[in-house]
User: What shape does this take?
Amino acid sequence: MNLDFNLPEDVEEARQKARKFANDEFKEEIAQTHDHEELYPYELRKKAFKAGLVRIDNPWNMLLTMEEFCRVDPGLGLSVLASVFGSELLLLYGTDEQKQKYMEPVLDGSKISALAVTEPGAGSDVAGISTKLETSNNEFLLNGQKMFITNATIADFFYVLARTSPPPSKEKRHHGMSVAIVDRQWPGVSVNKLKGKLGMRATDTAEIKFDGVKVPKENIIGEIGKGFYYIMTFFNISRVYVAAQSVGIAQGALDELLNYAKNLGSNEESMQFILAESAAKIEAARLLTYKAAWLVFQFNPDPALTSMAKYFSAEVANSVTESVLEYMGQKGLLSKLERLYRDSKITEIWEGTSEIEKLVIARTLVKRAMQGDQIVK
Amino acid sequence: MQLLKQVIEEFSEKEIDPVALSIEREGLTKEVLNSLAEKGFLGALAPVEQGGAGLDGRGYSVLLEVLARHSPSVAMYVFLQNSLFINPLLKYGSNELSQGVIPLIASGKSSGTFVNYLLTGNEITIDGSIIYGVANHIPNGSAQMCLVLAKSASGGQLVLLDKGFKAVNDSRKLGFRGLNFSSISFDGASAKSILISENAEAEIMKIYNESASYISAIALGIGGAALDMAVSYAKERQAFESRLIEFQPIAFLLVKLISEFNVYERYLYGISSVKDSMMLKELALDFSRRASRTSLQVHGGYGYIEDSGIERFYRDSMALELLTGSYTRDRVELSKELLGVESAKY
Assistant: This one.
């Protein structure tokens, strides 16, 4: 029996360090300004890199940093940590040249990456994308449009999913897609920042247009035609991070309620029940998230478990922020709770909507049941 | 009533829809306020001879529900002017005072707001006729006139002020972004008139309880509009080579919410007591939030962006509850009504 719920010492240290950084740097006034004005926190991002807090080579540290950052302010926390977004694609499938040219400057904080999958006409249905990469002489021509892309106006380059060949059949819609690395400065690329988001307003979100963009062959990641599978593998990693965001957001709301209970003293059981239910949900979400991450970080992911963690934690983030804000009333309106309430909603949408997560869970489980396999790892 | 609904619908399409987004971004304009005043909506509950529309409770509910469908901010503004300003003036003010003040509100020449420490938790006190204290996050806080519930040894007083207080703009807004929110400081302001000199707290709770059906009307307007938009979008948007509406989880969620909406809406227009109103509010606010959340989810990323007009429903449905009530106080009141217990205090 080697079940051990203690985090290793170095990971616990990373958590403390992240917590201290967030408490010191994500001051309420700063968080409010970035939220209100929809400003990307360039300086905070630099500081976090300098403090060694953005480390995709150390995923546990990154996961707990995500949780602690979002606990204090999701918009600022996400902006800082998502600046390396998509890097795992190169880590897993990139050539040495690609890693050196694109990934390394991102990991040392000098460049910013973005992942461009969603399109105006295709969100949950990734295989429904229509952006095309067509062969032309010794290179590719990229045409199409991407939507709701995090970091798009500030990124140096994007990882773009596009069709390199039409689907061979209706059943094989997932075939024929590839991932290309595309510089934002290349001719034919244009970005348009989207303003007026509900939450996570410090993060940068934009649409991208590709109009006859020339992409050299060496910028294709991995094998031609396997892009969909690379993206799904990536989602298996990124969804665990969204689960951690959600746990952090919910914990941040609980912190507010605990503060209230501690300082004002209240024996109202309605408050105590909200507190107890929230705390229990958060702990369940956290354990599920850590278990899914534990498998992912050993290169042994269970997509069903990852989707459970992502779906459940997002639900918890939404329900906890809602019930705590509802209870706190006008006090909540004047605290960071109203921001947490707005910030929580996106966790049910990005990196796979809750609906998609439920489909992954159900389909995986039925398949395992049919094969007589263990239902969950 | 059908005719009234049609009139308000046409008014909203003409005067509100074209500027609904700019109302959210830049606030209610003079033009919108003037057009509301012209129709008598700013004085919906005021008698016709005072420049109002003299609507009864049902007519007023129709007004709020329809306005909320087009712009929750506009509905909230009308609610504040009528339920929380004109109504207490009519109820507790002298004829002279009402006749002096209400025409100013109904014509849009002046506007009013209500400061209630029972909701804000800010201590506002009265000594003689002098008011002290600061109230935070007051909707329409830049108004020229202010009704204030002030704490006193005699169970609170309700006073009217038309000068001597200072409003400072507050940029934090969860919902109703078309309204101005301000902190108001009263240090040393003297009351123009004292409307209730003792036990005002209990009277004010009555005002809120009586307003429950109107709050519900706004909630139903928000939830109903959010659902209509979700249905239209789900009928158009394709994923996995089918329309969203063809997928059971989406369709089943929508039919449940649409059923709720229809039951609540029918109930709203048959309300005959304060108890009825309070019961509806308990359900309608929750419905409104769930309908808005579902609509946003159906719209996906598009619902998340201000331009779509969906995310404001999500924010406003929550803000409606927080600005017009209090989680425990509302339920304690309902417990008194339904259970006959004096106070559910633990």
User: Anything to note?
Assistant: The longest strand of chain A covers residues 139-150. Chain A touches chain B through 46 residues (CB under 8 Å).
